[in-house]
Design goal:
The complex is a heterodimer of chains A (436) and B (131). Chain A is α/β, with parallel strands linked by helices and 436 residues long. Chain A has 11 helices and 21 strands. The chains are: A alpha/beta (436), B alpha+beta (131). Chains A and B meet through helix 11 and strand 20 of A and strand 1, strand 3 and strand 4 of B.
């Protein structure tokens, strides 16, 4: 039975005026805090001729300078933190653009805000305290596992913290424990479905009811396929570690856009070229300002995700603004099995190795519903050996270096020199053959 | 005797071997013997040609990764058991072989191309045993 519930009705169904008031008050406070505590923010605001007093409401948001992943990198690891380390109780990290991670820190209050926003998203998805939730996202530095975990406990659901991988066990526990909710990447859910078929398990043998899928882009076609194969309602959830992790926004039962927890994360859509704000319904780059975070508040953080906003009240009764499924990126970041991959990371690995030149081509394929990253690397004259085992060991060495930098497995293929296309302008480094 | 073998790195794509042979044919390079070592991704074409320097120049000009490797050319009678005898000698002397391939010259003799780890020692051992 589908129980319709709203976790925090006074916020999720607040009028636009009420929401504006909440956002404005919190924004004013956040700007004060970062100006005082973070030199990087203070300098940027001073350069723009701003003092905290200039920001009086959300209308003044557009005056503030943007924050990018580059700022986080320049202040690696903790330079953007607003509170002393004694206040930080948890650290998460995701891959950065040049090998350095993007590091985020949470205070005790941040963790409770995180549990709150994830609780809301679970209720949006129709999950309640009777549910058995199998969390097949990685636990660890990645925010996917732990972030959902505490939200699920918060609403009183039963959590199976199985983490990623180990497909056989996933299926066994799903059957033995009567899992009703599956949380993983959409591609992994399809992989599970295939393994299910292969092992003779039928969707009727399972009690799956809801799937909460995120951390990578997926299409409506994939949604239909997942729903048919697993016999569940497939809900899209969005988040990024810089903002908080999973729980930034999520679809409700009507699957008509993801409701943004905008009392915590104020969204804007900008033109990635001119950086000017775009009107409702226009596709552009999504920008967030966090207004309750203590550990690492972010002002006008450029997510690089392309989407648009819809402020209409939803059929579910929520007034929280909705964002559409992300339509792409305004940079060259790839999301492979939930992990952020920047071509520049691979380039830096190749540059560090004397045997390789930074000529490479990344090919992303979806095979058996799992993303495969292939890296084509040119064999250079000087290190070409006529002994296969030397070439194989070189291939292994490159593979290991790239894997340890990216944190995901890759297939390295050695190709002949000068076969990877050179262009005068921006080199074509990526062939994404996944059908999105 | 020690000779220079020409090795070419080849991706496992159709037509690449054809290209190499075509280029060499155009340049008038005769291939006396060759072998291909392959993995799922790439292969290495190894050749014995009369003028290795010329082959290297031509192939490099066409953008191939080329290398020369010193190998041993061992001429043996084209009769059953002779290769076994030669290999036994090398084995007894603890000489490791990276790879080898062979071709028949005619009814009387065959040539075995050997790439040992220690080429001088291998040559000396073979000479000592009259091979």
């Amino acid at each position: 039975m589908w129980k319709k519930m709203i976790w925090n009705e006074s916020i999720e169904c607040a009028s636009r005026e009420e929401m504006r008031k909440i956002q404005s008050d919190r924004l004013v406070d956040t700007v004060q805090r970062v100006y005082q505590a973070v030199p990087a923010y203070r300098h940027k605001m001073q350069e723009a001729g701003l003092v905290p007093g200039d920001i009086g409401s959300v209308d003044d948001l557009v005056k503030l300078p943007f924050t990018t992943k580059g700022d986080l990198r320049d202040n690696y690891p903790f330079g953007m933190f607003t509170v002393p380390m004694s206040e930080i109780v948890r650290i998460h990290a995701s891959s950065g653009t040049t090998g350095k991670s993007t590091v985020v820190g949470y205070t005790r209050k941040d963790l409770s805000v995180w549990a709150e926003v994830v609780s809301r998203t679970l209720m949006m998805a129709g999950v309640h305290r009777e549910d058995m939730v199998q969390i097949a996202y990685g636990y660890g530095l990645f925010t996917g596992g732990l972030g959902r975990h505490y939200g699920c406990e918060n609403i009183g659901a039963s959590v199976i913290p199985i983490s990623g991988g180990n497909t056989e066990k996933q299926l066994q526990l799903m059957q033995d424990f009567g899992t009703t909710v599956l949380a993983c990447t959409p591609s992994y859910s399809l992989f599970l479905a295939e393994e299910m078929e292969a092992s003779g398990l039928k969707r009727e043998d399972l009690k799956l009811r809801v799937g909460i899928f995120g951390a990578e882009p997926w299409t409506e076609n994939m949604r239909r396929e997942i729903e048919a194969k697993l016999g569940l309602k497939a809900i899209d959830i969005y988040g990024l570690s810089e903002i908080i992790g999973p729980g930034v926004s999520c679809e409700c039962e009507f699957q008509a856009g993801m409701h943004i927890n905008e009392d915590h994360f104020i969204p804007e859509i900008i033109d990635p070229e001119t950086l000017q704000p775009l009107s409702e319904g226009t596709v552009g780059e999504l920008v967030f300002t966090t207004v309750t975070k203590e550990g690492i508040p972010l002002i006008r953080y450029r997510t690089r995700d392309l989407t648009c906003l819809n402020f209409e009240t939803c059929l579910c009764g929520r007034t929280l603004v909705r964002m559409e499924k992300c339509k792409g990126r305004s940079d060259d970041m790839l999301i492979i099995r939930g992990v952020n991959v920047f071509p520049s990371q691979i380039e830096s690995v190749l540059l560090e190795m004397s045997e390789t030149a930074p000529h490479y081509l990344l090919i992303v394929e979806r095979e058996n519903n799992l993303d495969i990253l292939k890296v084509m690397v040119e064999v250079q004259e000087q290190f070409f050996s006529d002994e296969i085992k030397m070439l194989e060991s070189l291939r292994k060495k490159i593979t290991q270096r790239i894997q340890s930098t990216l944190g995901i497995s890759v297939e390295v293929k050695l190709v002949e020199p000068r076969t990877i296309e050179r262009t005068a302008g921006k080199a074509k480094r990526v062939l994404d053959n996944r059908k999105m | 005797m020690i000779a220079k073998q020409v090795s070419v790195f080849l991706e496992n794509t159709s037509g690449r071997l054809n290209e190499v042979t075509h280029i060499l044919g155009e340049a008038g390079v005769n291939i006396s013997a060759f072998s291909i070592a392959d993995t799922s991704d790439f292969g290495v074409l190894r050749m014995i040609v009369p003028d290795p320097e010329q082959a290297v120049t031509v192939l490099k000009a066409n953008g191939f990764s080329v290398q020369t490797t010193r190998v041993i050319l061992m001429t043996t009678p084209n009769k059953p058991g002779t290769l076994a005898k030669a290999l036994q000698i090398l084995s007894d002397e603890n000489i490791f072989i990276e790879y080898l391939y062979a071709f028949s010259m005619n009814e009387e003799s065959a040539v075995v191309v050997i790439r040992p780890t220690e080429i001088e020692k291998c040559e000396e051992v073979l000479a000592r045993n009259g091979l």
